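wait is this the right file?? whatever heres the structure
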């Protein structure tokens, strides 16, 4: 198959706007404006995709609701990373049959990574006949056209063609927050880790043009967004497909030069492409947050090779060392998989020892979940689920001690934090984030401070969060 990136033309996006206008006319003729519910599962990239789906829906004349019962249209944006996530989605989709019976005109859409898996799409086709529209990430740009087909023909529509992926600019966006913004700088993945379904459902790596990324970030900064996260399956590969003399470090430096008081974050980084140039750029840039999510997945070289991670333990540890040399206060988080097929107890112990050596601020931990269509799904896997669960708990216990010790070191310090919300917990008024993205529960202050940077004195800590008060408040 031709894997050349397709750039959707402005004329094609204009055509989608025409579909939006057609649907908007239908919406305007109704006694009350129609409502849509967009339910998002999975990663920040899915959140960014859902913001574009909401943008299209708003252009179609839809308002928004958090109630499945009140919704005239339901869009479920799915994740395929783990089996548990798929089971949860299918359970929720199955339950919608009751709402559909009560509201026969309700339109139910399933999209995202799960929808791109052929076996899932076929299951929806055969067993979930109340679902009207199924489309994968490659077809998101033409959502209005697909939605219009459902509206006007009342037939079921499936668009899950296996494509290399595309880049579409000019899609309207409705963001969930006026404080934190997601900016996709690239899509897809070329790494083909043996356990991962992403390259099969999101296509090959393809980078947005730097001027388009810069324009989106500048618009967010001008609108007062304070925390902007650059997204990609592997942001460190940015620019390799553009044929331009620009890489991710260069892009960071250009974004750092945009006027405004905001933080720049990014995820996710693949260790094989985390370069010395990137570390030095982080240290030099004033707006780039001292936070780095660097998944290591396993501490055993044999397991890393079986995972097709293309680095070894020593190389990973060297990059952590060099990162800390450049950015001494950096907060490092990571992902780890427990129980990869064939992993032995001694190999798991290597993972534990790496965690103890690096001393991550936090970990996202998972028990291996087989994904149909990936090489790892057919590998021998003799370790029992009970053994994997026991190892998983050991790992969590080790990391919890480290996280608690890391957080305790903040007590007595005063940090410039972004107030990002009103707390729902007793004993704190607000929530905030440190530059390194650690959660702070702030005892005082009111909602008028949300969206502002404030100095916060850290007064206490536990494994999962920090506690503090506004500096100078007594």
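ok assuming it is, sequence goes like this
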């Amino acid at each position: 198959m031709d894997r050349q990136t397709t750039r959707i033309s402005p004329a094609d996006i204009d055509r989608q706007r025409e579909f939006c206008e057609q649907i908007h006319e239908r919406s305007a003729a109704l006694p009350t404006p129609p409502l849509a519910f967009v339910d998002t599962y999975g990663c920040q990239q899915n959140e960014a995709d859902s913001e574009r789906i909401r943008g299209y829906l708003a252009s179609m004349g839809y308002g928004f609701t958090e109630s499945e019962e009140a919704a005239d249209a339901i869009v479920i944006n799915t994740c395929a990373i783990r089996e548990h996530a798929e089971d949860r989605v299918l359970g929720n989709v199955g339950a919608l049959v009751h709402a559909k019976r009560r509201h026969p005109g309700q339109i139910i859409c399933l999209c995202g990574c799960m929808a791109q898996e052929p076996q899932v799409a076929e299951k929806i086709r055969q067993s979930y006949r109340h679902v009207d529209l199924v489309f994968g990430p490659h077809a998101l740009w033409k959502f209005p056209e697909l939605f219009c087909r459902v509206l006007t023909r009342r037939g079921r529509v499936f668009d899950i063609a296996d494509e290399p992926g595309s880049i579409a600019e000019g899609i309207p966006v409705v963001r969930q927050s006026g404080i934190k913004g997601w900016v996709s700088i690239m899509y897809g993945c070329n790494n083909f880790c043996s356990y991962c379904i992403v390259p099969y459902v999101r296509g090959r790596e393809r980078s947005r043009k730097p001027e388009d990324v810069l324009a989106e970030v500048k618009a967010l900064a001008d609108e007062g967004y304070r925390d902007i996260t650059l997204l990609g399956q592997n942001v460190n590969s940015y620019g390799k497909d553009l044929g331009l003399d620009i890489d991710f470090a260069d892009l960071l430096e250009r974004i750092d030069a945009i006027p405004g008081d905001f933080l720049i974050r990014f995820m996710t980084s693949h260790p094989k492409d985390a370069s010395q140039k990137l570390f030095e750029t982080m240290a030099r840039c004033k707006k780039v947050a001292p936070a780095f999510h660097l998944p290591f997945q396993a501490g055993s070289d044999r397991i890393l090779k079986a995972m097709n991670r293309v680095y070894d333990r020593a190389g990973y540890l060297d990059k952590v060392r060099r990162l800390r040399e450049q950015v001494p206060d950096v907060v490092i988080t990571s992902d780890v998989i427990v129980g990869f097929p064939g992993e032995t107890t001694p190999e798991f112990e290597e993972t534990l020892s790496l965690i103890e050596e690096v001393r991550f601020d936090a970990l996202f931990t998972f028990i291996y979940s087989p994904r149909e269509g990936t090489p790892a799904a057919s590998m021998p896997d003799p370790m029992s689920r009970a053994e994997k669960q026991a190892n998983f708990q050991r790992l969590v216990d080790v990391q919890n001690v480290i996280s608690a010790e890391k957080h305790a070191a903040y007590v007595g310090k005063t940090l410039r934090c972004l107030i990002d919300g009103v707390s729902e917990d007793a004993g704190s008024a607000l929530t905030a984030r440190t530059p390194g993205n650690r959660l702070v529960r702030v005892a005082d202050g009111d909602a008028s401070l949300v969206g502002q940077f404030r100095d916060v004195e850290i007064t206490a800590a536990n494994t999962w969060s920090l506690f503090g008060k506004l500096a100078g408040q007594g």
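DSSP finds 14 helices and 21 strands in the chain. so i think its the right one actually
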